[in-house]
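Figure 3 (text version): structure tokens given as input.
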């Protein structure tokens, strides 16, 4: 048995509509395309060991 202070607090459930709205907002604000700096870094750091 756990001491009273160690009991987990109940987790608040996120409504499905709120989660879907957050997903849409994230996808709308995410930049499109590739980052040339990231591609260049990957090439420099993984040239000898491709994914």
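Below: residues designed for each position.
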């Amino acid at each position: 048995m756990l001491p009273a202070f160690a009991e987990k607090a109940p987790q608040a459930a996120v409504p499905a509509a709120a989660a879907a709205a957050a997903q849409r907002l994230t996808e709308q604000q995410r930049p499109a395309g590739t980052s040339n700096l990231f591609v260049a870094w990957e090439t420099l750091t993984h040239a000898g060991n491709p994914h």
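The radius of gyration is 21 Å.
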